[in-house]
Amino acid sequence: VQLQASGGGLVQPGGSLRLTCATSGVTPDHYATGWFRQAPGKEREGVSCITNDDGMIFYADSVKGRFTITRDNAKKTVYLQMDSLKPEDTAIYYCNAQRGNLLYWGQGTLVTVSS
Known about the structure:
The protein is mostly beta strands. It is built from no helices and 11 strands.
């Protein structure tokens, strides 16, 4: 099982990025898939996820209205569209997939929001 996160980079405040989590060895719609982030000196926190059974979507309050998570089951890929980025969104972003006791993590991609 592999999860490959990509799409991070340096962006100015107010800008946009789209993160991609390409999976192999799992069927994303059979797992709860989502994104977490960890800022310097802070604990990892949940950003957004899609459940496996009914496809319900959840967002952290800090990103509601700015971030959008989507899943392409045919491509086995999960995306995180991030708009109106703020400096406080700076972090390493990780994708994961969970089903029961199975939990898989990607390697992380760095997002830096700075002018």
